[in-house]
Amino acid sequence: MLDTAIRNATIITAGDRYIAQIGIRNGRIITIAEDVGPAHEEIDATGLWVMPGGIDAHVHLEQPQGPNVVMADGFESGTRSAAAGGTTTVMPFALQQKGQSLREVVDAYHAAAKDKCHVDCSFHIIITDPTPQVLGQELPALVKAGYTSFKVFMTYDDMVLNDAQLLDVFDVARREKAMVMVHAEGYDAIRYMTRRLEEAGHTAPYFHAESRPESVEREATHRAISHAELTDVPIMIVHVSGREPMEQIQWAKRRGRKLYAETCPQYIALTANNLKGLNMDFEGAKYVCSPPPRDTDSQKAIWEGLRDGTFDIFSSDHCPFRFDDPKGKSVEGARTSFRWVPNGIPGIETRLPILFSEGIVKGRITPERFVALTATNPAKLFGMYPQKGTIAIGADADLTLWDPQRQVTISQSLMHHDCDYTPYEGMQVTGWPVRTILRGQTIMANGAITGTTDIGTYIDRGLSAAFTA
Ligand code: URP
Ligand code: ZN
Ligand code: ZN
Ligand code: ZN
């Protein structure tokens, strides 16, 4: 007998759409058929769409921010918010601070996550201190142990790598077959622009956007692509904000480079105008993230890229700071210059509904493409496929049931995160996740969290499809 049967489901995967029943036992899908037979638990999915649970391959939870700033979400509230938004696997970043060994970093992050996860979880590593010991021993050992991806930064005082360091990291990635995610913004150009804006008295949050225009992202994107060519390694450009960096990615893809790209909800649902707040006031700090949202032409470009394969994955870049909090957006100095406003916005819960509504319901992308961008491709590119990211026999029973007609006005009162605002307040969406199932267990039903924090497990990963395909 099955543990659970889902009846009358309109099943949508990256490649198919059909009506069938799904049979679940011991947390896995064991049958998909016209009639899967009796089960202990019955779920009637009439009128609902059943999609693979979302995989959010880019979130920041409980990431150290120096002495004065604290991230709004740790593992518990962050994964609770993920579950409420239809996401069943999250990939936060274990940050190496200068001087730390990577093993120490990863062990501490596991300790922070232990028994605190409503959904499954797997870590990327942020490399900020690529010493010979880190590159020669620690990183290779961790890739072999299943940490098959890491992130590097081309900007930020505490994290920036210079070109020589980037090349060295890329070289290790090729040898060890790891996926490198690149934050592509030019450090020196941002510092120059920041100084100039401050000298002119332009210090409001809006000027964060002016301090890092698209050309700064375009230049760094091109530089990262060139370094990846030199070292012959696939890389992923993350949080791409608009047309100009996209053109660099398209150029490289046309030349046959194995290059991957990610974009995020803020680049389809926000613009730099949001950073103006109400008449250039501090309200704009709610939208300060990097790269910043651009303009409506960029949004149009992003949609083209989501359709035509320029983008491979769609992640939240959830990076929450409380607005009304001296350890968040309102940190000391933030009102004197945008330079001190912590970068990042919440979005782990709203990622899928925004793409569903703005993408599928408005006819910009198909439901199959939605699944590819939000579940199947991240699973493949980060070494979790086919355990995760699809609806197939043998796969984990990670499923999200959608009411494609449900109309919701996004508001902070609906959110399950520990941030004190949502940047999408008041946005009307059609289509909402009404049940989230993690390895066969319902962890969210009609907005209520029904799972516990010991349900989520750590996922050891294999190689990225970038190295196996
Ligand atoms: O502003 C952002 N995106 N903060 C998060 C850190 C990052 O660069 O992804
Ligand atoms: Zn039984
Ligand atoms: Zn980044
Ligand atoms: Zn990020």
TrEMBL record:
GO terms for molecular function: dihydropyrimidinase activity; metal ion binding. The keyword rRNA-binding does not apply. One of its GO terms (cellular component) is cytosol. Pfam families: Amidohydro_1 (PF01979). Residues 49-442 form the Amidohydrolase-related domain. Belongs to the metallo-dependent hydrolases superfamily. Hydantoinase/dihydropyrimidinase family. This is Dihydropyrimidinase.
